[in-house]
Amino acid sequence: MIGAITAGLFSAGVASSTNSYESIATTTLGTAASVITFSSIPATYKHLQIREISQINVAGASKDVYMRFNSDTGANYSMHVLYGNGTSALATASTSATYAELATTGTTAGASVFSGGVIDILDYADTNKYKTSRSIVSWDGNGTGVVFFYSGNWRSTSAISTVTLTASTGSFTANSSFALYGIKG
Amino acid sequence: MAAGSTYTPIATTTLGSAGTITFSSISGSYTDLVLVVSNVKSVSSTPSCSLRVGNGSVDTGSNYSDTVLEGTGSSASSSRQSSQTRIEGGYYVGINSNGNGGVYIYNFQNYSNTSTYKTVIWRGNTPDGSAPGTIGGVGLWRSTSAINTIEVSGSGANLATGTVATLYGIAAA
């Protein structure tokens, strides 16, 4: 059963208009790769969103992913993290980091277990303020798993035209997929 | 570079009486699905806005697991369920018909690929009732089959009259 199609306004965190959300570019890995790059991002949107599934080809549970903007490797990033590992709720933060931290899963949970993530980069083209990102990135491995909520700050007023996601160790496995969307204001 | 607009409402259902909601024959032409369940209110003592999925029909096996992070306003906690018969999205206790219903937004990532198990991530908020709070979670369906059926229920029981579920499809370039 599928109900009647309803278009238009629907609050609670989804796009307010289905005409405001556009696919910009997608990378789905056929073979492992350590860096995902979205470049030449047009400044014509209000916000960016990256939706992904991923895994890093290194044994272990959670693995870090480094997000950088405009290829800036300087100590210009900071972040806060709230996360739950199935047992405890925890929080951490870092300042003057060289990347905005995200996470994915390693291979210990199983070859078919992939992390899922939704990463919002707000006002990415606004040259009057530093850039803020917020993300939910999580994985579950039937007995293991972590829910991560991130907030990140990039201390630059430059418009973001390039986003890179780098595996902190090893590479993103085949079938990892990263899709970049633009949300109009 | 952009491929055009893509955030498509697929279907919406508003319960006229207590029941469960099932979306079936979901097209595999999108990349992700977003399911918004709102005005969630109680019809039993320990309800949870829960999910089962499947290909052709709902998988009733113990092939689901989830990990959640939740805050009540005074404390935060995390818990996990393994080898369950559904993904439990979060409990909404004691929201009567006059209360403000909960909202749950589920993201089904790459739901139609046939290479990986399926991961669902979500946020939920329960603004009223005896246990208000907010929750984030991740669920796993241990199947490489494409998802084309989604069932929403109150932890296997009915959802209350007035519950609204809207399914969106997002297509990547």
Characterization of the model:
The complex is a heterodimer of chains A (185) and B (173). Chain A is mainly beta and 185 residues long. Chain A has one domain (22-183): Jelly Rolls. In chain A, 0% of the residues lie in helices and 49% in strands. Chain A contains no helices and twelve strands. An eight-stranded antiparallel beta sheet of chain A has the order 1-12-3-8-9-10-5-6, with no helix packed on it. Chain A is globular and about 45 Å long. Chain B is globular. By secondary structure, chain B is mainly beta. The model of chain B has no long low-confidence stretch (mean pLDDT 91). Helix content of chain B is 0%, strand content 50%. In chain B, the strands form two sheets. In chain B, strands 1-12-3-8-9-10-5-6 form an eight-stranded antiparallel beta sheet, with no helix packed on it. Chain B has a four-stranded antiparallel beta sheet with strand order 2-11-4-7, with no helix packed on it. Chain B has strands at 8-14, 21-23, 32-40, 48-54, 64-71, 76-84, 87-91, 102-108, 118-126, 133-141, 149-154, 164-170. Chain B has one domain (8-170): Jelly Rolls (Sandwich), CATH 2.60.120. At the A-B interface, β1, β3, β5, β8 and β9 of A face β1, β3, β5, β6 and β8 of B.
